[in-house]
Design brief:
Number of helices: 10
Helix content: 25-40%
Number of strands: 11
Shape: globular
Distance between the termini: 27 Å
């Protein structure tokens, strides 16, 4: 298992976590096709040493949070459940921003009930709702943090300027933006998080596309390291910066075990250089 990262210098988490979006139905909507397997995945993740599980109230909606509570409550000591609010689900594969400052309290309290928690260790604003001042959304979360309903606060899909605006109001422990071998538009945010010791969740972490084709660069490196392309993609992320916290998701125990093995993979310097330059 990979090393640990300490959120805000307070809460240690395993650097390779588990993202619980995939345990819902098609289009991340509705009940999973195999509910018992979803429960097994969550329990197996903890058995493998994962102590960071990332979810959101919009996954299902609500179903991912409910499954986590069903599978793992009462929670083992040290398990960090991170959830998010600020997106709604009109239907399968559909997302809409919805984070009115006056409604964030209700979103947090709904997640607390579904997860059977008294405090959410890490609560992330899933998206800044551009219909309202960003400052008002950050202030609402700061108030909930001061009340003890939230331990740490995170942001998702944000710019460096938005991170700094939020940090002028409340400490920010994590940022969650899309980032993988194929999608590196947020390099400046990754570097900013590294400079300020902010945990960075790269969502969609194992996208490899054509890089993993037989005979391709990722396939060659995987063969060299006796690993899968997905494991190489995760290892590259983990070696990118100590603040990187990949949260690969899956609905199958077999794939979970394969992904978690990526936390133990050490890429050669030559392999890292090749992947850096793809």
């Amino acid at each position: 298992m990979s090393s640990t990262f300490v959120l805000d210098g307070v809460t240690p988490v395993s650097r390779l976590g588990y993202g619980a979006m995939q345990i819902t139905g098609p289009g991340w909507y509705g009940e999973p096709a195999d509910r018992p397997e979803a429960i097994r995945v969550l329990r197996r993740a903890v058995e493998l040493g994962v102590n960071l599980i990332d979810t959101a109230d919009s996954y299902g909606p609500h179903i991912s949070e409910e499954l986590i509570a069903e599978a793992l409550h009462p929670y083992p000591e040290g398990l960090v459940i991170a959830t998010k609010g600020g997106l709604t689900r009109p239907g399968p594969g559909q997302w809409a921003r919805h984070a009115p400052p006056g409604e964030l309290r209700g979103l947090v309290e709904g997640s607390l009930r579904r997860l059977k928690l008294e405090r959410i260790d890490l609560y992330q604003l899933h998206r800044i709702d551009v219909r309202y001042p960003a400052e008002a959304q950050f202030e609402a979360l700061a108030e909930l943090r001061a009340e003890g309903k939230i331990g740490h606060i995170g942001l998702s899909e944000v710019t460096v300027a938005e991170i700094e605006l939020a940090r002028s109001i409340v400490p920010i422990a994590t940022v969650q933006n899309i980032y993988n071998l194929l999608q590196r538009d947020w390099e400046d945010v990754v570097d900013h998080c590294a400079a300020h010791n902010i945990g960075f969740f790269p969502w969609h972490p194992i996208a490899t596309g054509e890089l993993a084709r037989p005979g391709g660069p990722l396939d060659a490196i995987a063969r060299e390291h006796e690993a899968t392309p997905a494991q190489v993609a995760l290892a590259w992320l983990l070696q990118r910066t100590p603040v990187m916290l990949p949260i690969p998701g899956t609905s199958k125990v077999k794939h979970l075990e394969e992904n978690m093995a990526g936390g133990d993979l050490k890429l050669s310097a030559a392999a890292v250089e090749t992947l850096d330059n793809l």
